[in-house]
Design brief:
With 556 residues, this protein is an alpha/beta fold. 35% of the residues lie in helices and 16% in strands. The protein has 16 helices and 17 strands. The protein has a 10-stranded mixed beta sheet, sandwiched between helices. Strands 13-14-15 form a 3-stranded antiparallel beta sheet, with no helix packed on it. A two-stranded antiparallel ribbon has the order 9-10. The longest helix has 27 residues. The relative contact order is 0.11. The N terminus is likely disordered. The protein binds calcium ion. Calcium ion (CA) binds next to loops.
């Protein structure tokens, strides 16, 4: 400990000297100038802000990850988090949210490769010079590689449950800021939160319940309505797993998608495989029935949909209410149901060869985990549905039973991010960006749209809302990333410009990148309710790939 303390004194001296030199040089850059190694030296082996700390420099190898100081910290009994400290700190903090049921400290470039996908938000922030903070939210999932699909930790673990619901972010922030002060002699000048899915929920929870914690927040595809989302997952998967002869083949999914595209793709000015003007698209489950139904209603092959298959489409699009008051507004038909990562992953995936369709689908796995862990609170819960000998036992959970009402109400109050009153956050100067993929098969965009509109009403109308928040829709994009649309967008830069310079964001630019990181095409990322309308030359394939050929347009 003595050598660490000595090192810290040397470091603090260096920081003070560097600050003095910066001041003498007349620079207006007030960020602390310790290197990653110096920050690591200051923190390694220490106990800071209630957390025990290990820290070491990770040296850059091939690939997109730079050299950085990796700070691994733990708050007893079970809250783990990391700080990733860059070589040249920009003075700001970026807190990257979790996903699913959390349960692991997410990697810098979670999906590997060279592409900073939308789940590579942490790496993108580190590369901009932010100190990146990520936590496991207070528990550890037990299935390697599927930690975030595990809720078997919930029964009998109220501390972890509360950390997951809302307290892990402020708890980690408190320690993280203390660590930064120890390493640099000063806290961050600005702190931002950015997350998708559960990370998007954590973003909104922070704005609603801890309005002074962050200067700016980005909520992507948030899990707003936990209870009704789980209910909708159950309803959707019942219609698939309980119908072993359903046979909703990929060819039939493509048949449906192509029918939607035929009706609606061109309504935005270009047939590009993305319905960017969904407000003008009237193709719905009823249209599908009249256009695609097999003669007589029985399955006669891949050129039509049987009545059982059309019932799946009905269920997908219909509003559903659970427990008398928890509304899921249903999904829209997008024409991207057949895109990889869409219905295949979320509705129909099998747990393995020979297993039934849906048994490995994400909606089923999350439904199973949420109901067995959070609602039935069954301590014998298997971590994953297909490991449970009881199989689809969660299908019998009745959201409408009076005996379940109190549990649903308690869980809703604890975990849902539906409070529209963001006035404390707004009045404190906070800025908030919403983002949602237009073809999200996990969380319906209708929820985010409705919540955004509820915020607009609560704060006093559109002009007031526009003073602190924007809602961006990314047409054709799946859950958080991927799909037929342009899924890459630098919301952090837009947020930072708004917070630090007062530059309110308008239309941004989104890209879809190839696996090697090169751009397939770009599009404007328009402020809701606008959509990108093609205004380039007709039939010009090169122009259609460029954002400059589109104009953000308000639907009539
Ligand atoms: Ca189109």
């Amino acid at each position: 400990m003595e050598s660490t303390d000595t090192g810290r004194l040397v470091l603090l001296g260096a920081v003070a000297l560097a600050a003095l030199l910066t001041a003498c040089g007349g620079s207006d850059d007030n960020s602390a100038t310790a290197t990653a190694q110096q920050a690591c030296t200051a923190l390694a082996g220490a106990t800071v802000g209630g957390a025990t700390v290990a820290a070491a420099v990770v040296v850059a190898a091939s690939g997109p990850v730079p050299s950085y100081c990796k700070v691994s910290a733990k708050i007893e009994p079970s809250l783990n988090f990391q700080l990733r400290i860059p070589e040249a700190w920009n003075g700001k903090l970026h807190y990257g949210g979790g996903g699913g049921f959390d349960g692991l400290v997410r990697g810098l470039n979670e999906y590997g490769g060279t592409d900073n996908d939308n789940h590579g938000l942490n790496l993108a922030a580190l590369n901009k010079g932010y100190i990146n903070v990520v936590s496991d939210a207070g528990h550890q999932g037990v299935i390697p590689g599927a930690e975030s699909v595990d809720a078997s930790w919930v029964p009998g673990n109220p501390v972890a449950e509360r950390l997951y619901a809302d307290l892990s972010v402020p708890t980690v922030m408190s320690s993280a800021v203390e660590m930064i002060k120890k390493a640099y002699g000063t806290g961050p000048t600005k702190s931002y939160f950015e997350g998708c899915s559960t990370g998007g929920r954590e973003a909104l929870i922070s704005a609603q319940r801890f309005p002074n914690l962050f200067d700016g927040i980005i909520s992507r595809a948030p899990v707003l309505n936990f209870t009704s989302s789980v209910g909708a997952f159950q309803t959707n998967e019942k219609g698939i797993l309980l119908n072993p002869t359903l046979n909703f083949t990929p060819a039939k999914v493509a048949l449906l998608s192509n029918a939607v595209l035929a009706a609606c793709d061109g309504l935005d000015g270009v047939a590009d495989g993305v319905v960017s003007n969904p407000a003008a698209c009237t193709f719905n489950a009823s249209t599908a029935r009249s256009a695609l139904r097999c003669a007589g209603g029985a399955d006669t092959g891949d050129t039509c949909l049987s009545d059982a298959q059309l019932a799946v489409v009905d269920t997908w699009t219909a509003p559903k209410t659970f427990g008398g008051k928890y509304l899921n507004p249903g999904w829209v038909l997008t024409g991207n149901e057949s895109a990889p990562g869409n219905w295949d992953a979320w509705l129909f995936a099998a747990a393995g060869p020979g297993a039934p369709a849906g048994s490995g689908a994400a909606q089923y796995l999350f439904e199973y985990a949420a109901i067995s862990g959070f609602l039935l609170r069954n301590p014998a819960t298997a971590p994953l549905a297909f490991l449970d000998p009881a199989g689809a036992s969660t299908f019998s959970y009745d959201f409408d039973a009076a005996s379940n009402s109190a549990t649903l109400a308690a869980l809703s109050t604890e975990i849902e991010a539906t409070d529209p009153d963001l006035r404390p956050f707004m009045n404190g100067g906070g800025k908030l960006l919403f983002w949602h993929g237009g073809a999200d098969p996990a969380l319906t965009i209708k929820n985010t749209t409705a919540y955004y509109q509820s915020v607009v009403a609560k704060v006093g109308g559109q002009a007031t809302a526009d003073s602190f928040t924007r809602f961006y829709v990314a047409p054709g994009v799946n859950h958080c990333q991927g799909g037929a649309g342009a899924d890459k967008s630098d919301l952090l830069a837009a947020l930072d410009a708004w917070v630090t310079n007062g530059t309110a964001p308008g239309a941004l630019t989104a890209a879809q990148n190839a696996a090697d990181g090169s751009s397939n095409f770009t599009r404007p990322l328009c402020v809701y309710p606008q959509y990108p309308r093609y205004t380039g030359a007709a039939g010009d394939a090169a122009a259609a790939k460029l954002a400059a050929s589109y104009t953000c347009t308000t639907p009539p």
